[in-house]
Write a structure and sequence with these properties.
The structure holds two protein chains of two kinds. By secondary structure, chain A is an alpha/beta fold. Chain A folds into two domains: 25-146 and 282-346, Rossmann fold, CATH 3.40.50; 148-276 and 359-374, Response regulator (Rossmann fold, 3-Layer(aba) Sandwich). Chain A is built from twelve helices and 14 strands. Chain B is an all-alpha fold. Helices cover 75% and strands 3% of the residues of chain B. Chain B has a two-stranded antiparallel sheet. The N and C termini of chain B lie far apart (47 Å). The relative contact order of chain B is 0.20. Classes of the chains: A alpha/beta, B mainly alpha.
């Protein structure tokens, strides 16, 4: 084929025009940076979190977008690791057009990324539940899940006020999560002048929990409270508890209700209670989100915080009528009584949006919403 | 008293698991002078094979176990050919490092195929167990204790009372001399790898209903099994079983009466005690004598 100079010039002009149009369109979108585990050990929950964000983006875009522009998610893989998260955020940080970020559900990753987030100085919506994350003096972190200090408080409140049981056998992992939970339970029991009948730590990855079960049995406790980190540990404990005839009520941290734990322990967990942040039947927003998710992805979601995070970020930018970070921050902190999938958002001065937990019961394998316990102080 | 008996039963059950895995170690040490750090992965692979045959393909449980044992025997041969054979004249250390490499490879391969989540699997019996007075005897633990006892007897008979066992031992002690005496050394080594792999797989299948099936299911158990081997006497069959049981009971009683978080420490304190006071273990030979 003969290419004349004229044809070449025309082709070049056309390509240039397309590039300019493409760039203009790209600049037209409102870009949100996302750090998400696309690969590695927690890629599976990461996929659900990303799908949830896409649903939120579609909803916002369908309602007119943000300041008249469509949301575009710029996703970087954190490889399910702390170094991966830091690298992913640094890639996003280079893109000046990004107006805000969705961070991680893992507190350790958030801790690793927090210094860079402070330097970038743009709002980050995140899900890690370590209470100290919003007390780091970093004004750009906004949490879309209740922090761990509330789980202990809700568990003690539920045991003493709803179940009317106060002789607590506390079983906890000796790692950072379990020890933090133990401290929260003891602190909240102290406030009620109560003392635990048993405080029993264990190291992760146990093959036999019979000494722990027998200690619970001997303690005379009327309720078990637990903070298990690993699902198999929780399932082994549950089975041995039932085999050795312990039948007292059991209120656990969220891991006791995870699909993995329930799949492993099966009927050994029937009748147990747990605190949980995302519960489908806990409010109309969660229900509508779960229905929409199922319709699109043919499975049920197990969290809604990324959906909430993106929705809140979009609302804040619209409320602020600006993409200036300081104005978006002020708009997020001004959000009160906002109905999210994880509960009603009332941002406090530290950036915590939620201040309570749902309590659920495992009713013959089905998770049923029991009540929501909210704190205002 | 009933609590004490309950704890002793649990300790015996968990100790029998250690003993079973420890037996796999002992076999390879005795017959091929190989300390196999992928022994735990044999257990993990056996458990995953049972998941495939029973959970996924719906075959009867015992048939699934049998097929898994046969496949694990074949896997043992492949393992020997790839991990041990090329390094057999290079001394002990390269083979040990080779087995560590194989362990990492197998873990990551299974992680790639099945992911990190644990999988539940039914036990040998429909019933959870039986109540005897105040003590509950879990059926899977009972099965492990019985099967471990039978295997110990079988293994003892094979090694001490049969020509095959003596050939295996001769191969372990001096391959050149064994070869001069007409013993098919290669065949002996391969038989040992196949049997050890099957035994490891069986241990994994028996443990799976209690600890679930996962990539890391055999991690701490393998360490304890190796410790049991040291307590019982390096390379001793009766030592492996007694060491495993002693370890299981010590850590269970220690956890119940002293401290749960230090449960693993009791096991390793026992090992330290043996290394200081009786380094040859319960039934082991003194190194000088063996040389």
């Amino acid at each position: 084929m003969l290419i004349t100079r004229r044809t070449a010039l025309l082709s070049g002009a056309a390509v240039s025009s397309l590039a300019v149009i493409g760039r203009a369109r790209a600049q037209d979108t409102m870009k949100i940076g996302v750090v998400s585990p696309l690969t590695g050990a927690v890629a599976e929950p990461g996929r659900i979190q990303l799908n949830s964000m896409r649903l939120a983006a579609e909803k916002v875009n369908g309602a007119g977008g943000v300041l008249g522009r469509q949301i575009e998610l710029i996703v970087e893989d954190d490889q399910s690791s702390n170094p991966g998260a830091v690298l992913a955020f640094s890639r996003l940080a280079e893109r000046k057009e990004i107006v805000g970020f969705i961070g991680s559900i893992r507190s350790t990753q958030m801790n690793a990324m927090a210094p860079d987030m402070l330097k970038v100085a743009k709002p980050v919506m995140f899900g890690g539940t370590d209470p100290t994350l919003t007390k780091l003096g970093n004004p750009w972190l906004f949490r879309c899940r209740p922090n761990d200090s509330y789980s202990g408080r809700v568990i003690v409140d539920f045991c003493t006020k709803t179940l009317k049981l106060s002789k607590v056998a506390l079983v906890h992992s000796t790692d950072a999560f379990g020890t933090g939970g133990k401290n929260a339970i003891i602190a909240n029991l102290d406030k009620l002048d109560l003392k635990a009948a048993l405080v029993q730590g264990y190291t992760n990855n146990q093959s036999d929990f019979s000494p722990v079960v027998l200690a619970v049995k001997q303690s005379g406790a009327d309720v078990i409270v637990s903070y298990f980190t690993n699902e198999p540990d929780c399932a082994v404990f549950a089975r041995q508890l039932r085999q050795l005839g312990v039948r007292i009520p059991w209120v656990g941290s969220p891991s006791i209700m995870s699909p993995v734990t329930r799949g492993l322990a099966k009927n050994a967990l029937y009748g147990t209670y747990a605190v949980g942040d995302f519960v489908e039947d806990s409010n109309p927003t969660a229900k509508a989100f779960a229905d929409a998710y199922r319709a699109r992805y043919k499975e049920s979601p197990d969290s809604g915080w990324t959906y909430d995070g993106l929705t809140i970020l979009a609302k804040a930018i619209n409320d602020a009528k600006s993409t200036e970070p300081d104005k978006i921050r002020a708009a997020i902190l001004a959000i009160k009584k906002f109905p999210g999938t994880e509960g009603e958002y009332n941002f406090d001065q530290f950036g915590d949006g939620l201040h309570g937990y749902n309590v659920v019961i495992n009713n013959d394998g089905n998770i049923e919403y029991k009540q929501h316990i909210e704190f205002t102080d | 008293m009933s609590d004490f008996l309950q704890l002793v039963f649990q300790g015996l059950g968990i100790g029998a698991i250690y003993a079973l895995v420890s037996l796999g170690f002992v076999l390879l040490i005795r017959a091929a002078n190989v300390v196999n750090f992928a022994q735990g992965e044999f257990s993990m692979l056996g458990a995953y094979l049972l998941v495939v045959f029973f959970n996924l393909l719906g075959l009867p449980y015992l048939l699934g176990m049998l097929l898994s044992i046969v496949i694990m025997a074949g896997f043992g041969l492949v393992f020997a050919y790839t991990t041990y054979w090329p390094l057999r004249f290079r001394g002990g250390l390269p083979v040990i490092i080779s087995t560590i490499g194989a362990s990492i490879f197998l873990q990551n391969m299974v992680l790639w195929i099945y992911g990190p989540s644990s999988t539940p699997i039914d036990g040998l019996f429909a019933s959870d167990g039986i109540q005897v007075g105040q003590v509950f005897l879990a059926s899977q633990y009972l099965a492990i204790i019985v099967i471990a006892t039978v295997l110990v007897l079988l293994q003892y008979l094979i090694f001490e009372k049969t020509l095959l066992g003596k050939r295996l031992q001769a191969t372990s002690q001096d391959k050149e001399m064994a070869s001069l005496l007409g013993i098919p050394v290669v065949l002996m080594v391969m038989i040992t790898f196949a049997y050890s792999s099957s035994l490891g797989g069986l241990a994994g299948m028996l443990v799976a209903p209690i600890l679930f099936v996962s990539v890391n299911m055999a991690g701490i158990i393998t360490l304890k099994a190796f410790a049991a081997n040291i307590i019982g006497g390096y390379g001793s069959i009766p030592g492996a079983i007694l060491g495993g049981l002693a370890l299981g009971i010590t850590e269970t009683l220690g956890a119940a009466y002293i401290s749960v978080p230090y449960k693993d420490a009791f096991a390793f304190l026992l090992v330290l005690g043996f290394l200081m006071v009786r380094p040859q273990g319960l039934f082991g030979e003194k190194i000088a004598e063996k040389a």
